[in-house]
């Protein structure tokens, strides 16, 4: 039987009832993901949805290159994807970084490099002064530092040299520790595999479409008189 409180004139409930009510309100905790970074990268980049997203991005990037070349008569025509070319290569890497949505170090490094290239291109198009560049003391200090760093790198153990070389191959991992370099390398390699599959699919689709359009129609059948 519930007791009546003289102050609030409302029935008081036991602490056990309050605790059970609080337990009911708590949401069940979700179990942590048991997938390793390597397995999650495989699952993400080997999915058909991710390949479709990248294919859409690269086709749009190539279309922008063609449109910019057509609007600017002084620009060179874009190279064919089969023959390669710097513009197509940059568009492929930039589309891969956009597909990654900047969630990795290598994707953010590629996107920031693309922005720096645009700014550098704008600076190069500005009128320059006729004065030739002079060698200053700062340039000499930079050369000395580069040679000192090379000598230090030669004195490192073999494993550290390999890790340092690997960190230079992966964008954005030059000054990262070994676990970060390995994780970024795994994701970068699987993303590159997806890029190759998507580009091969695009090239085969373009090749089959061009061959079907260029092939002459079959000759009409002539009937024999009876």
Automatic annotation (TrEMBL):
GO CC annotations, alphabetized: nucleus
Bias (Polar residues) ranges: 1-18
InterPro entries (alphabetical): bHLH_AtIBH1-like (IPR044549), IBH1-like (IPR044660), IBH1_N (IPR059002)
Domain IBH1-like N-terminal as annotated: residue spans: 49-114
Primary localisation category: nucleus
Residue ranges of the region described as Disordered: 1-50, 69-88, 207-226
Cellular compartment(s): Nucleus
Protein's GO biological process: regulation of DNA-templated transcription
Compositional bias (Pro residues): 215-226
Biased composition (Low complexity): 32-44
Entry keyword set: Nucleus, Transcription, Transcription regulation
Pfam families attached to this UniProt entry: IBH1_N (PF26576)
Protein name stated in the entry: IBH1-like N-terminal domain-containing protein
């Amino acid at each position: 039987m519930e007791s009546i409180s003289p102050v609030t004139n409302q029935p008081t409930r036991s602490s056990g009832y309050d605790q059970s009510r609080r337990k009911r309100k708590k949401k069940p905790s979700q179990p942590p993901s048991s997938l390793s970074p390597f397995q999650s990268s495989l699952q993400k980049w080997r999915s058909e949805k991710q390949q479709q997203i990248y294919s859409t991005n690269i086709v749009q990037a190539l279309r922008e290159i063609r449109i910019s070349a057509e609007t600017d008569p002084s620009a060179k025509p874009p190279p064919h994807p089969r023959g390669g070319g710097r513009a197509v290569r940059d568009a492929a890497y930039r589309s891969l970084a956009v597909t990654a949505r900047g969630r990795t170090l290598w994707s953010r490094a590629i996107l920031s490099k693309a922005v720096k290239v645009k700014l550098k291109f704008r600076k190069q198009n500005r009128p320059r002064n006729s004065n030739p560049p002079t060698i200053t003391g700062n340039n000499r200090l930079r050369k000395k530092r580069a040679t000192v760093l090379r000598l230090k790198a030669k004195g490192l153990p073999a494993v550290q040299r390999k890790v340092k070389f690997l960190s230079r191959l992966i964008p954005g991992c030059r000054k990262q520790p070994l676990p970060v370099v390995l994780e970024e390398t795994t994701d970068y390699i699987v993303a590159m595999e997806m890029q190759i599959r998507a580009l091969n699919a695009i090239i085969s689709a373009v090749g089959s479409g061009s061959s079907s359009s260029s092939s002459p129609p079959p000759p009409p059948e002539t009937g024999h008189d009876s």
